[in-house]
Amino acid sequence: MADPSLYDALRIPSETLIALDNRTYHFAVQPYHYLIRMSHIVSAAAFFGGIVLFDLRLAGISSHTRLKALAADILPWLYITFGLAMMSGILLFFYDPVHAGSRAYFMPKMILIVLALINTLIYRRLAFGYALKEPPATPPSARWAAALSASGFLLAAQLVPARRTNPPSLGALPAPPEVAATLKRACYDCHSNETRWPWYSRVAPLSSFIVHDVRLGRKEVNFSEWGSYPATRRRKLEWIGRSLHEEKMPPWSYRLMHPGARLSEADQATLERWIDSALTTSSAGGSNE
Ligand code: HEC
Question: Ligand 1 centroid to 249 CA: how many Å?
Fold first, then answer.
């Protein structure tokens, strides 16, 4: 859902960002900017935490807690943390407008803030007043507003860009066709630059997990970069043999979503035979040179 290029049209023009850059302020703030950044992150996290607590209570969890008391505790907290997050955010923006304003996550954040303000309006209308009158049961409208607010976090997460990339190949693996086909079917989604990204890899928070898995997988073994491995091919082949032998790969979560990627005993035997012959004959990419 969130390709960084989606936000390009909304971005602040770089001339404006450059014009906003004030080096006097930048150098004055420089010694403290880590402190500001930290208070930005901590206050934003504390703010969201407070809201979720409130949502959960309104949705009916821990309903023995008195709402009025909870509101009295949480509201000042929400105002303070929101104020801190906004103030530190503005300070950080002007500390380095060119950098902050052109970052991939800047526009999603701005959209989030607008959505959150709309959420606040809905919350006030539907939930807050009624809930604080402490009727015998939480009114349904309050439950709705709480559910909307809580699911807003999931929706909002969709705005966070996850980088799904397929860089060009740097020398594909030389392997007999049946071996290549099996590897393509069972391993290439995480161990090559030819990942077939499934639709749910666009849905946060799954997207972050999948992108992370592919990045890790490519780092360990990348069949599209086999040509750049001359010194470590042998080691990688041995790893592959071991991972197959221990039935560690493909990971169970992947097998669950891709039943077709399971390796039959015949597939396994074919791969193992290929690894053995590559290791002994120093061919098929098994060479150490
Ligand atoms: C869903 C993504 C995914 C698929 C599909 C997948 N892997 Fe992996 N693989 C990973 C990740 C993530 C790592 C790094 C983390 C780890 O070692 O567990 C990894 C690590 C490895 C390693 C190095 C670590 C070790 O155990 O030696 C090998 C070898 C490997 N995979 C082989 C394969 C083979 C062969 C296949 C196909 C039969 C395959 N993988 C399919 C995600 C995947």
Answer: 5
Ligand 1 centroid distance, CA of 141 (Å): 48
Measured between alpha carbons, how far is 194 from 168 in angstroms, rounded to an integer? 8
Burial class (CB in 10 A: 0-12, 13-18, 19+), 81: buried
- The angle at the Cα of 75, spanning 129 to 43, to the nearest 5 degrees, equals 140
Residues 6+ apart with CB under 8 A from 98: 14, 17, 18, 21
Name the closest-CA residue to atom 29, ligand 1.
240
Q: Which two tokens stand for residue 43?
A: 């206050």
Regarding predicted confidence, which is higher, 4 or 259? Answer: 259
Q: For the whole model, what pTM was predicted? A: 0.66
Q: Are 92 and 37 in contact (CB under 8 A)?
A: yes
User: 120 Cβ partners below 8 Å, 6+ apart?
Assistant: none
Residue 198, SS3 per DSSP: coil
Residues with CB under 6 A from ligand 1: 186-187, 189-191, 213, 216-217, 220-221, 239-240, 242-244, 248-251, 254
Tell me how far apart the alpha carbons of residues 190 and 221 are, in angstroms, rounded to a whole number.
9
pLDDT tens for 8-60 read 777 888 899 999 999 999 999 999 899 999 999 999 999 988 888 888 888 87
Q: Of all protein residues, whose CA lies closest to atom 35 belonging to ligand 1?
A: 240
Which of 68-72, 173-177, 180-184, 230-234: highest mean pLDDT? 180-184
Distance 196 CA to ligand 1 centre (A): 16
